[in-house]
Amino acid sequence: MSTIYDLDLNDLELLLNEWNEPAYRAKQIWQGLYQQLYSSPEQFSNLPNSLRTKLEEEFKFIPFSVRTYLDSSDKSTRKTLFELEDGNLIESVLMRYGDPADEHDSHSMGKPTKQRRTLCISTQAGCAMGCVFCATGQLGFKRNLSSGEIVAQVMYYAQMLKERDEVVSNVVFMGMGEPFHNYDNVMAAIDRLNDADGYKFGARRLTISTVGLVPQIRRFAEEQRQVNLAISLHATDDEERLAIMPVNKRYKIDDVIEACKYYIEKTHRRVTFEWALINGVNDTPEVAHKLAARLKGMLCHVNAIPLNPTQGYNGEATDRQRAQIFKETLEQAGIPCTIRMRRGIDINAGCGQLAGAESK
Ligand code: SAH
Ligand code: SF4
């Protein structure tokens, strides 16, 4: 059964027409879903009983069940493992920022911290890209999520936060999967979240992170969306990148950087480069200098995060001191850099880690 979140307003209007319902019902359902944040048909008190029953019979509202959830010991982070209808597992993580003791903000992109609720969501079950350090990559590819399954992760948390009078403030596509490998469904999900008569979630509060699929970066540039773009680079040398990221066989670093320059030229938006700091592998001052040389003159920013250790890869995290030197070296060479602190390390909050543990 598909989820109601798979439909956009137009689909809903067509459907209700087929069901011989008045046209205004579509808008009522849409607003119930995305403004009132109803989570089940019985909450739609403005709809006739017969229509509520029909919706119940035809659609799943939330198209997954909660298999487990875990809160980090400081309560700042909640990770939920969802089981989809077909048994596949995906994860989403909610991170709270801006609470008084919170000095580091892993998704701040260098801006001052306010109270924020950032949601990290999945776009695929598993991932085909096979980055060796990544728990999701170690699982392999299961399937693409539908646009509704992507939207439903946001709505699930939005409904939960609403009970505490809180709202989702940012959404990052940094959970399981490669968003640009499921391009159309991800963009449909973004459009649905954006809708001015619905959830009205601003594009600027969304961030897509990609392993660096060049044609899709160019397509994305041409669409000139206001969505933020992050590129997982992790190495400055093709050979070194290939050793940890098989995608580099297809798309070389130069091509990725060229595509990013095209994106900046088209959108005038700053690109973020993601950098997982792996002890002794890509965290030396020498690497930082090479990276700075590659990125010189670009409207960009480096977001470095010490590696989150996973079962299938024996690399180690860079310590705080080395990370600091890496950052300073980059900044002295004119490239802004933030060190993201690892959050929720005690709850396996790195993408794919919980699903990996469950499927063993
Ligand atoms: N597939 C996309 C988005 C999901 S991964 C991408 O690769 O960009 C989100 C981010 O987490 C990426 O920057 C990825 O390189 C990083 N990542 C994956 N595994 C990690 C780990 N074990 N430690 C630190 N960062 C990791
Ligand atoms: Fe896929 Fe991203 Fe993990 Fe690479 S880092 S395997 S692209 S989810």
Q: Which labels suit this protein?
A:
360 residues, alpha/beta, DNA polymerase, domain 1, 2 domains, two-stranded antiparallel sheet, elongated, binds S-adenosyl-L-homocysteine, binds iron/sulfur cluster
Q: What would your notes on this structure say?
A:
This protein has helices at residues 9-18, 24-34, 49-58, 135-139, 147-162, 183-194, 214-223, 238-244, 253-267, 285-295, 320-332, 353-358; strands at 64-71, 77-84, 89-97, 116-120, 124-126, 141-144, 170-173, 206-210, 228-232, 271-277, 300-306, 337-339. With 360 residues, the chain is of the alpha/beta class. The strands form two sheets. The protein has a ten-stranded mixed beta sheet. Strands 5-6 form a two-stranded antiparallel sheet. Strand 7, helix 6 (183-194) and strand 8 form a beta-alpha-beta unit. The chain is elongated, with a radius of gyration of 21 Å. Residues 100-112 have low confidence and may be disordered. Bound molecules: S-adenosyl-L-homocysteine (SAH) and iron/sulfur cluster. S-adenosyl-L-homocysteine is lined by residues 131, 133-134, 174, 178, 209-211, 232, 274, 276, 305, 307-308, 310, 350-351.
